[in-house]
Write a structure and sequence with these properties.
heterotrimer; A alpha/beta (336); B alpha/beta (336); C mainly alpha (301); A: 336 residues; alpha/beta; Rossmann fold; 4-stranded antiparallel β-sheet; 12 strands; C: 301 residues; mainly alpha; MetI-like fold; two-stranded antiparallel ribbon; 11 helices; 1% strand; elongated
Chain lengths: 336, 336, 301
């Protein structure tokens, strides 16, 4: 087993607000190896974005990491100083966001920003940095990169801006790229282009990719591994195929079931009743039990992670039955 | 086919900057001097015919800049067309006397995309939902409380929350408030403009089920505008595909998804991420969506179309019937 | 189907309560608000607090003129802040002067606010040529220095409190119109306004019940700044002798009266009214600053 590029163990990030303590990330663990694509799936309030921010040390007060460790190639990122984190950020670990304008400065030209990004981590001349920037733009599929370098962000369309953000993120061939819903706001055809680019680049450079999203369909086509988050905890992990074909946790099962393409046309969609509980006021024990059809009195205790099959973990006292053998196709589940 | 409830005949909508006296003077001077005038008119909707029969659910699909939201607003009566006529139950709403026009307007209601911007943050729920019925005399003061409670309950909200403000609710609940508001004036037709796009998947399923229930209970007709093909396929009887202001394909839902004719529809369906697809290589059609200010000549799609011919850049294809109930606007269909 | 809302709010949290809580987070602003309220109360109850009515000539003794602070009057009370050249008690004069200053300042700002806001909302909602015409008028108004316009108007109309109020309204309305219009243009495009139109609500209802409450934040900030401005402007006009008549002196006029004595050592005749004016304006500005921060949507959440 290859050493993990990134291993998150029992991570806890809490926000200390006037209204109370928000346990945005509460005991999250997962690992990702070189070249792997992991989908971090969850709805709003699940803690997936805060997890991404925690890895990069970007959590601002009133939030902070209160426990656990984040091991990057053996080094614990939570113990590093801000200066040490800065040398890693952008160089070895990079991030792209839903809004590319979180990466791009609207008043600076693209070449200025990219050259700055290059020279932040590499001692090269201005001309050399510019060449690298231009090559990077070409690699993400931006036509006429030489002319585009002189442009400002507002002169690009949304999809183009996201490509530039990806180009910046990959300038130093990082070992890990965290992508926080980068295609959610884009059109379908543009989304497909971005997904194609990212897939190709990750394969070329062996970059490990954490793709944060709420869209299971995107993850289905992209990810090797999936981790499902609910109310700050990881409730299920496993290989993408296994989790999507035969989910173990009732929440995952409900989520997949409510996708329209998994239901018969014209019929009522299978829905999860109720709403995500407020993070200020989580139910005792399993956070999902107020909405779970399988919950009973034992769920008032918090379930720890269990491993019903190798490579799969789930946090549930009443998980669904796991896939006995590879290759079984559940026709019933597909037809609804 | 049942009687049409909404009909758009040769409707166009153009947006352009309005020049005041000084700007007009400047423009005419520079025209005399021979410098080219930048045409800044956006052809959001270009000569569209659309019929929705009573009881139908028509899905309107397209990406940004295609004009679907503009059509939605023209149908709902909050935006007048630049050309063409909008008919409600066979009557041109522009020629109706004020009180009849108002009645027609109330019969067509709209559910908006952004649950955070579509509710007045300063009004309580009871005012948001109850204002219009009171103002228009649909309910007397005496019956108001009972009426309001019924409306809230129908949308899946607890009536005891009537004195709360929007910021105290989640996104899904706000959308329900918006639905209650629309239903309170007893409409016959609902325009849903990306009504579930901003919601989490599990809440989306609840709201879509609510739409389907209301359709049955209240005999409503829907124009469902969305970019999400999965949702549209599930809900709609008929589907219209739009690209850059024009309808490029129109057919019954099963037909469009099983046998897409127009190259754009085919590309769209090929690129939509599907939860059933597993780790795949994303292949995308090239090119960006053109700006609606300067759309390509002839067929708007020809620069990105893998089957483009010389004729496509010269002549705009008309929407013709290629099979019973299936229309498409593509020159390829003329090659028998 | 569950219908529970977020359980985070235990008691009814109206936008007003939230606003008050955020405002009081700044102690400086809270202190300034208290000071301003005290000043306001002092002005309202001047007749009860002041030892002397400075406008009643029968109470004045010209022999008591230009006495320094702390002197005893013939009637037995102390001239806490001295007297002016007419024998008026400075403290009483300041209290009564505050009445005029605050009354004119707040009154003119209020009237200008109503007029300017209505015009700005109308311009934003209707758009087109009406909007252009109104904004050209605003541009015209704002291109002249306020003092100049006020002086011209007062020169034509003559002195008098109501004339001063009128002049100030004419000078001030344009700021409100411009601010409200900018805010309304943004809100106009929001979906809840579209929803109101979809519900066929009458136009005036949409403007005043839906648009206006959501344009209030910058309006409130501007209004507080304008009150301070109006007070200062009125003081300037009175100082120049074109404002309120000497029978109803405002703080500005009091300052003007004592100006000639500044160098001869009888500072109190100008100094104390000046302090009063300064404290009032600073208090209003501090309150306005905090209001601006609290109401700034970008700093929300």
């Amino acid at each position: 087993m290859t050493t993990a590029t990134l291993e998150v163990r029992d991570l806890r990030t809490h926000f200390f607000t006037r209204a109370g303590v928000v346990k945005a990330v509460d005991d999250v663990s997962f690992a990702i190896t070189r070249g792997q694509v992991m989908g971090l799936v969850g709805e709003s309030g699940s803690g997936k974005t805060v997890t991404g921010f925690s890895i990069l040390g970007l959590v601002d007060p009133p939030g902070r990491i209160v426990g656990g460790s984040i091991l990057y190639q053996g080094q614990d990122l939570t113990k590093l100083s801000e200066r040490e984190m800065r040398t890693l950020r952008g160089d070895r670990i990079a991030m792209i966001f839903q809004d590319p304008m979180m990466t791009l400065n609207p008043v600076l030209r693209i070449d200025t920003q990219m050259i700055e990004a290059v020279q932040a981590h590499a001692r090269v001349s201005h001309a050399e940095a510019r060449t690298r920037a231009r090559d990077s733009l070409g690699m993400v599929g931006i036509p006429s990169p030489e002319e585009r370098l002189a442009a400002y962000p507002h002169q690009f369309s949304g999809g183009m801006r996201q490509r530039v953000a990806i180009a910046i993120a990959l300038l130093h061939r990082p070992d890990l790229l965290i992508a926080d819903e980068p295609t959610t706001a884009l059109d379908v055809t543009i989304q497909a282009q971005i997904l194609a680019e990212v897939q190709k680049l990750a394969a070329t450079y062996g970059t490990a990719l954490i793709w944060i999203t709420h869209d299971l369909s995107v993850i289905a086509g992209l990810a090797d591994e999936i981790a499902v988050m609910y109310a700050g905890r990881v409730v299920e992990t496993g290989a993408a195929e296994t989790v999507l074909d035969r989910p173990l946790h009732p929440y995952t099962h409900g989520l997949i079931g409510s996708v329209p393409s998994r239901n018969r046309r014209g019929e009522r969609l299978r829905q999860i009743p109720g709403m995500t509980p407020s993070l200020l006021n989580l139910p005792q024990g399993c956070a999902f039990r107020t909405r779970c059809p399988r919950a009973d009195a034992s769920c008032e205790q918090e379930p720890g992670p269990s491993q019903p099959m190798p490579g799969q973990t789930v946090r549930c006292f009443h998980p669904l039955t796991p896939l006995p053998l590879a290759g079984e196709v559940d026709a019933r589940q597909r037809a609804g | 086919m049942a009687a049409p409830i909404i009909e758009l005949r040769r409707v166009s909508k153009r947006f352009g900057p309005t020049y005041d006296a000084a700007a007009r003077l400047a423009r005419s001077i520079s025209r005399h001097l021979g410098t080219a005038q930048r045409n800044e008119t956006v052809h959001a909707v270009d000569n569209v015919d659309l019929v929705v029969a009573r009881g139908e659910v028509v899905g309107l699909v397209g990406e940004s800049g295609c004009g679907k939201s503009t059509i939605g607003r023209m149908v709902a009566g909050i935006m007048p067309p630049s050309d063409g006529t909008v008919l409600f139950k066979g009557q041109d709403i522009a020629t109706l006397p004020p009180d009849r026009a108002r009645d027609a307007k109330l019969k067509v209601q709209m559910i908006f995309q952004d649950p955070y911007a579509s509710l007045n943050p300063r009004l309580r729920v009871e005012d948001i939902v109850g204002e219009a019925p009171l103002v228009h005399g649909l309910v007397s003061h005496g019956d108001f409380d009972a009426y309001l409670d019924a409306q809230l309950r129908r949308a899946g909200l607890d009536p005891s929350f009537r004195r709360r403000y929007p910021h105290q609710f989640s996104g899904g609940q706000r959308q329900r408030i918006g639905i209650a508001r629309a239903l309170a004036v007893q409409p016959e037709f609902l325009v849903c403009d990306e009504a579930v796009a901003a919601l989490d998947v599990s809440i989306q399923a609840q709201i879509l089920n609510l739409f389907m229930d209301l359709r049955r209970e209240l005999d409503l007709t829907y124009l469902f505008i969305s970019h999400d093909l999965g949702v549209v396929e599930h809900l709609s009887d008929r589907v219209l595909i739009m690209y850059l202001g024009r309808i490029v394909e129109s057919a019954r839902a099963e037909e469009v998804f099983a046998r897409p004719n127009h190259p754009y529809t085919q590309a769209l369906l090929a690129e939509v991420p599907r939860i059933d697809a597993r780790k795949r290589r994303f292949t995308a059609i090239k090119g960006e969506i053109p700006s609606p200010i300067a759309p390509p000549s002839g067929c708007h799609f020809h620069p990105r179309c893998p089957h483009a011919m010389p004729r496509c850049s010269q002549e705009a294809p008309r929407l013709r019937e290629i099979a019973p109930g299936h229309d498409s606007a593509c020159h390829l269909n003329d090659l028998a | 189907m569950s219908t529970t809302a977020l359980p985070t709010v235990t008691r009814e949290e109206t936008p007003l309560r939230r606003f008050i809580a955020e405002f009081c987070a700044s102690r400086v602003a809270l202190a300034a608000l208290v000071v301003f309220l005290l000043i306001g109360l002092a002005a309202i109850f001047a007749a009860l607090i002041a030892p002397q009515n400075p406008y009643d000539l029968a109470q004045l003794d010209i022999m008591d003129g230009r006495l320094p602070p702390g002197s005893i009057s013939g009637a037995g009370y102390t001239y806490i802040l001295g007297t002016d050249d007419q024998g008026r008690d400075m403290f009483s004069g300041i209290l009564y002067g505050l009445r005029i200053s605050l009354g004119v300042g707040v009154g003119s700002a209020f009237i200008a606010c109503i007029f300017g806001t209505a015009l700005g909302l109308f311009a934003a909602y209707v758009g087109g040529r009406t909007d252009a015409a109104i904004m050209r008028l605003v541009d015209l108004q704002l291109s002249f220095p306020s003092i100049l316009v006020a002086l011209m108007i007062l020169a034509m109309l003559g002195k008098g409190v109501m004339n001063v109020v009128l002049a100030l309204v004419i000078v001030e309305w344009a700021y409100y119109t411009r601010t409200v219009r900018a805010s309304a243009l943004v809100e106009r495009r929001r979906e809840y306004i579209e929803a109101a139109e979809c519900l066929a609500l009458p136009r005036h209802r949409i403007i005043f019940r839906h648009l206006l409450p959501n344009c209030l934040p910058p309006l409130i900030v501007i209004a507080t700044q304008q009150i301070a401005r109006a007070i200062a402007l009125e003081a300037t006009l009175s100082f120049l002798g074109l404002g309120v008549p000497i029978t109803e002196p405002s703080l500005g006029l009091l300052i003007a009266n004592g100006y000639q004595y500044m160098l001869s050592g009888k500072y109190w005749i100008s100094f104390y009214p000046g302090i009063a004016l300064l404290v009032t304006i600073v208090a209003i500005n501090l309150v306005g600053d905090q209001l601006r921060d609290v109401l700034n949507p970008r700093l929300q959440r």
